[in-house]
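Hi there,

I know you've been waiting on this one. I reran it after we fixed the sequence typo, so this is the corrected version. Both the input and the resulting structure follow.
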Amino acid sequence: MNQNNVAIAKAFYTAMGEKKIGEMEKYLHPDVQFSAPLAKLEGKEAYLEALKNFTTFFKTLAIRATFGEGNQAMVVYDADCPAPIGYLPSAALMTLSEGRITKIELFYDARPFGK
């Protein structure tokens, strides 16, 4: 297991919880790919724009667990969102290369979003 990848993943989501877009940006590869139940994005700029929207949406974000294997790391976290969403447990599987996040696969229950 590459502990550095886990540390990077944790630092990225810690910065997200603190709503520090500039801090998150330094961990992203320029060609980062993002997929979630409600979105698919390619490229750092598109993903950063989505992050700006998300960080203004949630109230708090708390990391529950981090772990990894090889070039991947996973962060399990809870986001406290406004009604009607409320508590949103989520997991992000990240692929990293040379200290940068190249892919993020986000898992959560999209039903509260009406999807």
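Quick highlight: The helical segments are 3-17, 21-25, 44-57.

Best,
R. S.
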